[in-house]
Design goal:
By secondary structure, this protein is an all-alpha fold. It contains three helices and no strands.
Length: 76
Amino acid sequence: MKILRYVLSIATFLLAVYGLITKKIEFNHIMIFLLGLTMLVMGIEEFQKERKIIGLLLVGVFLFSVFVSIKGFLLR
């Protein structure tokens, strides 16, 4: 899980840097989706550590970011 969290975080970071440098927003919905997946992995890790409140909060952030990224896919 730790490796998956790092890979998703690095991919999200690279897409964010690309968007800042080029001023293009064409990959923002993908970046938000990857950020949501990162939050899901972090939420699962928190559930495994018996921290249910933080885990629920992170899963809620995942659901919201997936909703936003789907809206981005549909509006393009």
